[in-house]
């Protein structure tokens, strides 16, 4: 396993070109092309803003500049959830490569997560526009944490993607289970609502919140970009970083164990 | 010499999970939380069984065998795409596997981008691909289409580009799986030239093919796989010969089985002699050319006053069989039984090719033999001095009937034999022939170069 892991950097070039291919191929043939990277999150933003500003304003009472707040959590979530959805099917759809070419299969989920990260980066300019427009209270020391959050999320997403992609080869049901789990996960994470402004009825569930790894990522993004004051969530973030590293090793071990079965099962 | 490929006692066992089991494993895996343990298969299939082989550097090994004999599995193991269940595979030097050409091409992006990605996937660096790019495109004859998306390519273009990339990886060990079946004549020649060049430059080639001519001409050694085991290896001519003989023997068994089945079915539906399928029988026995007869389906009918108890095809070796070579001697031996003496009878034979065309038909009456008597068990032999038919499967009618056509026992298309030929000529009938040339017209033998 460690040997295989050590071999991975050798495939950087391949990962790069596959990510580039993924990005090129995704919008090839569509009129707006890369603009969809902006349009998709903006549309989501419009929908949620409309709902929470005009239909259920009570739910987000106390959060000023709601669109900016929501955007801080929504963009990372989109990266995370699309990575998982895509990686759950990536070994099956990439079966041709696994069966016919000598090719380390883990490259496929890595490419998926990385390509989605690039999409995340491509949407960041919109976030910058929002930050400027709402005159968000940014400080350099807080912004320095931003790459760390991204790195932790990358590692965490990659670990989940490895696990999912390997297991889905054997249990195709996972794809269906996943879409349900992701819906639950989205609402269990303070993305469209703020954990600071929860109503009384939600209080009993608060104590379970810390179990959800994505809570800490969302809160980190929000503290860094949205809320004023120093970044206070860094202990949780670093702890999640360590956990993600362990999870990644475990996922990689699992992936390695199942590797030989891929060529036969996909 | 150092071996380039070493395969030592390798077995490959494929596991099969039935669909039902998959659901069961998910449930039990979740319940017992022992995922790995529960991934046990319920069925196994041994694709390769204790196979060992060594290919010295610079040699070309041809692997032959029937479909499903494990050839492609062997190639995948050598390529490292799948792992052996037991045993070890060692390959020294860079491998390029021409297994599925263009595997990994993405349909939406251009040929140019795909060449880069495919090259990198096969182990080149970006710079190396850039250096070889023009050569690849030229080899694939794709200059004007290289910037079009791959989804617009024809299957031939797809294959050519895949082949061009794979061959320009400049491998030390080249694995080829039946890829020359695609592509037009010109491109095939180009590929063969490229292989020859590889050979000259001392590269090792492992070739899986059904083209026996190519193995004989091209390979230093041949390996014959049968049901996952090595059935023979060594001199290509010898191995190919043994393989061909074995294939014939198997065809023989199959034909014997179909024959037996056809006769069994025919016996089960005996047509009563009083109402013979009128369309089936010639009104006038002299007119064996009656077209109705040729439209009849296979079957057996007749009064059985004289019965055909057995029909054998006897080859030059005196053995009854079903596979013969063009030009061989062939006896159609017909066993007859007449419980009571009969004095009105005609013995006839007809040979039909797969299209249903009558290649030849005759009977004793047509050949001006008047019947005298038949009684008890006896035998009639239709002796063919030379079976001058082209390659193919032939069905035979054998009949004994009255001069006026009333059938005693009619076997319609119930007997089958197969003619094999080295020469792939066409037609119905092969006249005895030879070619003669005068001084300025010269040929040389191209035997063994067929593909």
Description:
The complex is a heterodimer of chains A (266) and B (451). Chain A is mainly alpha-helical and 266 residues long. Chain A has 12 helices and no strands. In chain A, helix 2 crosses helix 6, helix 3 crosses helix 6 and helix 4 packs across helix 11. With 451 residues, chain B is of the alpha/beta class. Helix content of chain B is 28%, strand content 31%. Chain B is built from 10 helices and 18 strands. In chain B, strands 5-6-7-3-8-9 form a 6-stranded mixed beta sheet, with helices on both faces. In chain B, strands 10, 12, 14, 15, 17 and 18 form a 6-stranded mixed beta sheet that branches. A 3-stranded antiparallel beta sheet of chain B has the order 2-1-4. At the A-B interface, helix 2, helix 5 and helix 12 of A face helix 1 and helix 4 of B.
Quick tags:
heterodimer, A: 266 residues, mainly alpha, 0% strand, globular, B: 451 residues, alpha/beta, Rossmann fold, Coagulation Factor XIII, Chain A, domain 1, 2 domains, 6-stranded mixed sheet, 10 helices
In the CATH hierarchy, what is the class of the largest domain in chain B?
Alpha Beta
Q: Order of strands across the biggest sheet of chain B?
A: 5-6-7-3-8-9
End-to-end Cα distance of chain B, whole Å, is 30 Å
Main pleated sheet of chain A: none
Q: Which consecutive residue ranges of chain A, at least 5 long each, have pLDDT under 50? A: none
**Proportion of beta-strand residues of chain B:** 25-35%
Produce the secondary structure layout.
The complex is a heterodimer of chains A (266) and B (451).
Chain A: H1 2-7, H2 12-27, H3 36-55, H4 66-93, H5 95-100, H6 107-133, H7 140-143, H8 146-170, H9 174-188, H10 203-209, H11 213-225, H12 234-265
Helix pairs in contact in A: 2-6, 3-4, 3-6, 4-6, 4-8, 4-9, 4-11, 6-8, 8-11, 8-12, 11-12
Chain B: E1 3-16, H1 19-32, H2 35-38, E2 43-56, E3 60-64, H3 71-79, E4 86-91, E5 95-98, H4 111-121, H5 126-140, H6 155-167, E6 173-177, H7 185-200, E7 204-208, H8 212-218, E8 221-226, E9 229-234, H9 236-268, H10 291-295, E10 299-301, E11 307-314, E12 323-325, E13 330-342, E14 346-352, E15 358-363, E16 374-384, E17 392-401, E18 407-420
Parallel strand pairs in B: 3-7, 3-8, 5-6, 6-7, 12-18
Antiparallel strand pairs in B: 1-2, 1-4, 8-9, 10-18, 11-13, 13-16, 14-15, 14-17, 17-18
């Amino acid at each position: 396993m460690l040997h295989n892991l050590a071999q991975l950097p050798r495939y950087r070039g391949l990962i790069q070109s596959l990510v580039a291919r993924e990005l090129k191929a995704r919008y090839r043939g569509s009129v707006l092309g890369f603009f969809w990277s902006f349009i998709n999150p903006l549309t989501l933003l419009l929908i949620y803003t409309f709902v929470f500003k005009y239909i259920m304003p009570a739910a987000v009472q106390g959060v000023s500049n709601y669109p900016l707040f929501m955007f801080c959590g929504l963009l990372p979530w989109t990266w995370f959830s699309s990575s998982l959805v895509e990686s759950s099917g990536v070994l099956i759809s990439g079966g041709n490569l696994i069966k016919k070419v000598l090719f380390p299969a883990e490259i496929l989920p890595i490419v998926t997560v990385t390509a989605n990260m690039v999409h995340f980066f491509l949407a960041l300019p919109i976030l910058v526009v929002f930050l400027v427009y709402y005159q968000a209270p940014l400080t350099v020391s807080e912004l320095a944490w931003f790459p760390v959050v991204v790195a932790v999320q990358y590692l965490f997403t990659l670990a989940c993607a490895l696990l999912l992609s390997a297991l889905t080869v054997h249990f195709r049901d996972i794809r269906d289970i996943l879409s349900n789990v992701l819906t639950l996960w989205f609402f269990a994470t303070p993305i469209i609502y703020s954990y600071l402004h929860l109503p009384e009825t939600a209080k009993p569930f608060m104590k379970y919140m810390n179990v959800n790894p994505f809570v800490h990522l969302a809160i980190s993004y929000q503290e860094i970009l949205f809320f004023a004051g120093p970044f206070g969530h860094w202990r949780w973030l670093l702890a999640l970083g360590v956990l993600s590293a362990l999870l990644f090793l475990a996922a990689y071990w699992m992936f390695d164990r199942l590797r030989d079965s891929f060529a036969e099962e996909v | 010499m150092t071996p380039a490929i070493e395969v030592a006692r390798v077995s490959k066992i494929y596991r099969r999970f039935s669909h039902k089991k998959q659901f069961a494993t998910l449930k039990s895996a979740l319940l017992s939380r022992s995922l790995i343990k529960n991934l046990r298969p319920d069925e196994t299939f041994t694709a390769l069984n204790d196979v060992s082989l060594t290919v010295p550097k610079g040699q070309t090994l041809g692997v032959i065998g029937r479909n499903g004999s494990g050839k492609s599995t062997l190639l995948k193991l050598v390529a490292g795409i799948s792992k052996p269940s037991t045993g070890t595979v060692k390959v020294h030097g860079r491998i390029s596997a021409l297994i599925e050409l263009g595997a990994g091409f993405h349909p939406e992006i251009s040929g140019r981008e795909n060449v880069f990605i495919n090259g990198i996937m096969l182990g080149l660096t970006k710079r190396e691909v850039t250096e070889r790019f023009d050569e690849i495109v030229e080899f694939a004859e794709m200059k004007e289409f290289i910037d079009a998306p791959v989804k617009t390519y024809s299957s031939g273009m797809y294959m050519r580009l895949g082949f061009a990339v794979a061959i320009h990886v400049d491998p030390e060990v080249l694995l080829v799986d039946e890829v020359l079946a695609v592509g037009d004549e010109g491109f095939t020649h180009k590929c063969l030239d490229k292989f020859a060049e590889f050979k000259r430059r001392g590269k090792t080639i492992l070739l899986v093919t059904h083209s026996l001519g190519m193995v004989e001409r091209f390979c230093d050694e041949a390996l014959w796989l049968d049901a996952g085991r090595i059935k023979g290896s060594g001199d290509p001519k010898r191995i190919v010969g043994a393989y061909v003989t074995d294939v014939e023997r198997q065809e023989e068994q199959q034909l014997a089985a179909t024959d037996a089945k056809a006769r069994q079915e025919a016996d089960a539906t005996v047509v009563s002699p009083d109402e013979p399928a009128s369309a089936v029988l010639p009104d006038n026995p002299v007119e064996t050319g009656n077209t109705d007869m040729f439209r009849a389906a296979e079957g057996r009918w007749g009064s059985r006053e004289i019965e055909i108890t057995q029909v054998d095809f006897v080859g030059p070796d005196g053995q009854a069989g079903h596979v013969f070579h063009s030009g061989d001697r062939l006896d159609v031996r017909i066993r007859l039984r007449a419980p009571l003496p009969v004095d009105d009878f005609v013995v006839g034979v007809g040979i039909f090719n797969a299209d249903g065309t009558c290649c030849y038909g005759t009977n004793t009456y047509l050949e001006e033999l008047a019947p005298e008597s038949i009684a008890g068990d006896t035998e009639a032999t239709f002796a063919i001095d030379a079976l001058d038919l082209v390659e193919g499967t032939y069905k035979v009618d054998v009949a004994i009937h009255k001069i006026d056509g009333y059938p005693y026992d009619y076997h319609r298309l119930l007997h089958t034999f197969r003619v094999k030929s080295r020469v792939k000529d066409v037609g119905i009938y092969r006249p005895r022939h030879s070619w003669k040339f005068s001084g300025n017209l010269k040929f040389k033998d191209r035997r063994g170069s067929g593909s």
